[in-house]
Amino acid sequence: MFNKKVGMLALVAGTGLMALAGCGPTTTAPAYDLTIYCPEADNEVMATIIEKFKDANPEYAELKIAVTANGGEGDIGNSLQKDYASQPDILLAADDNLRKSAEAGAILPIGKAREAAVLAQAGEAGLESVSLVTAQNPNKQAYGVPYRNDNGYVVIYDSTKISDEQIQSLEGIGEACQENGVDFMYPIEDAWYTPTFFWAAGGYFTPKVVDGKVNLESNFDTPEVAAGAQAVADIFKEYGVTSPLNENGIYSTKDTASVENAFVAGTMGGAIIWNDLANIRAQVGEERAADIKVAPLPTINIGGEDKAMKSFLGYKAVAVNTNVLNEKIGWVLEEGEEAPDITREDLAWDFVDFLTSVEMQKVLLDERGYGPAATELHDDPKVTGNEFLKALQEMEQAGNTVPQGANVTDDFWTPMQNFGALILKNAKSKNQWGDTYKTAAEAIAGMITSTTGWTTAD
User: Fold this and answer.
1) pTM for the structure as a whole
2) Which DSSP category does 384 fall into?
């Protein structure tokens, strides 16, 4: 029987053997048979998964498999785009990082057989989250295997300041803030949150290849969607404040720490925010923790009808770096033995399949609280008992979430941010749309025409 390269598992992220995300291995780094990029907080659970992988696959038991770089799943795309050859083989990535990675030729498509497996495990939404059109290929291909679907936002609120009934509508929230002398944080100038009201009005956007470039096609220029923009502008005009220090109402910030501090001080009624529930409850203390609740995003009244605001729902996926095609496993063989017929690519995909399996998604749910992409785990008590995941799942089932990665291009973020900032800047002025525009429709048209990567639907 062949003897494989001997090497104990080593988690080397942050030890100097390899720098953090965006930097390649140093010349003194030891040779690894498979390297992994993931958040530093996941190092311990990844070590467990590596050991389980080796136990389940004896042929890999003695290989050196290690986390060699840390960084957020939302950061790896830029690093791959710049220099994918220096990055690890296995990449935990936010789904909106897949497109730029695929365009750079930095990650491999998962193939038709694996696409079918993703569809069976994560459903149509899971497969769509990783399926992309690119400038090189207008036909969709999947470039990662989803393992999480919890990258969204809900409302976290103090039920002693805003009632369970008031929290259901943006108008009710505004009234509660003024009645009870508290604030509500709606980060409208943060592009991740800005389009909540566009979607409420029936807006959509989707990538489309036009003349060899991926453009963002949308219907944001329609009267119906313009009405949604006007509705949220009216909300900020009536209930909005530019600072939470001198008035009470709806305001915007990108500073999560200030939101947490305001909950502690009792001046924060609630916030549209990512999964910061545990931190907020810990900071307000045990006696008040039960008062901090979670709800789906509120409605907003558009043209006399209450419309549900919607959240991005981003998946996290595991992708394989193209560099595995050019590297070999360092089998150490006894005299006369032949290396097994296993390529570095085979090893990489075997690890991806294991890491994204239902069993390992359950480990990540239990150990890290991550919302699983596997649909059969959506009824798991760890999901249904998690208030944030439960609210996000409730929104998804009601059709009030929007897939992120497959629909977003780099051209999306700046116009959204600028549009939200325009509303915020002019909230209290006589002209809600500033000096340039008279109506929401004109402002939207200006946003789209100033962005070369957008087209409007026919």
Assistant:
1) 0.88
2) H
